[in-house]
Amino acid sequence: MILYPNAKINLGLNIESKRSDGYHNMSSVFYPIYDCFDILEIVSSNSFLFTSSGISIPGSNNLCTKAYDLLKLKFNIPAVHIHLHKKIPIGAGLGGGSSDGAFVLKGLNDLFKLNISNKKLKDLALELGADCPFFIENEPKYITGIGDLMENIKLDLSMYEIRLVDSKIHINTKNAYFNIVPKSQKLKLSELIKKPIRLWKDLITNDFEQTVFKNYPKLSKVKENLYEKGAIFSSMTGTGSTIYGLFKK
Fold it and tell me: Residue 40's closest CA among 78, 94, 87?
């Protein structure tokens, strides 16, 4: 079985409050980017094995292994060999690791005919990480809570070219959140995203840009450059460091 876990971008990312459990309430629109993807192979094996190629993955406790361990615990599935060819940049705000974990859950569900519903898969994915449930249905969503609450939205950017700029800067998510100052939003992102895209530049923001750009001025220059080249909207995705621009095809 070969799967292609894809990336996502954040259209807006607002941190609204800090919770008593240490997490943050946020709002964002997640949009899948299907032409930026990893390659995942899952085959039956005598013993569990995870291997990888492409971009080096730090540590051994990755989300692919965690996803297998989770289904092994709950459904006692047989051993598999998982090979991940990593292409999505790590620490770039594109959700590559979360996508990998979610696709392993979906792949094992299909491979062993576990008949797990999408709702249950999303619950399982949440045990892996806050961004993982999005990749179960892998469609545009309005995201709230800690990233676990999702609403379907009608959003089609197929008429636009989405250019991703990877500056090879690894942003530590924990540090990015440590420096963020939560603030409530006057207008909901779910309403702002319905406005014409030409207005997004003045309406939709990523709260992490202020602190991340301060530490990495190069990223601010990348965003400015995309606008100079004709982008209708440009933003950092996630906690960074990828900057994207929307261009008319």
Answer: 87
- Identity of residue 232: I
Tell how strand 39-44 and strand 49-54 pair up.
unpaired
Q: Which of 131, 141, 148, 223 is catalytic?
A: 131
- My answer on whether omega of the bond before 47 falls inside 30° of 0, hence cis, is no
3-state helix, strand, coil in the chain (%, to 5): 30, 30, 40
Reported pTM: 0.94
Query: Which domains, ranges and CATH numbers included, belong to the chain?
Result: 2-151 (3.30.230.10), 156-248 (3.30.70.890)
For 85, the 3-state DSSP assignment is strand
Is 8 an annotated catalytic residue?
Answer: yes
Closest CA to 52 of 111, 100, 117: 100
What does the pLDDT profile of the chain (249 residues) look like in tens digits? 999 999 999 999 999 998 888 888 999 999 999 999 999 999 999 999 999 999 998 776 799 999 999 999 999 999 999 999 999 999 899 999 999 999 999 999 999 999 999 999 999 999 999 899 999 999 999 999 988 899 999 999 999 999 999 999 988 888 888 888 898 888 999 999 999 999 999 999 999 999 999 999 999 999 999 999 999 999 999 999 999 999 999
For residue 12, report the phi and psi dihedrals to the nearest 5 degrees.
85, 140
Whether 72 is catalytic: no
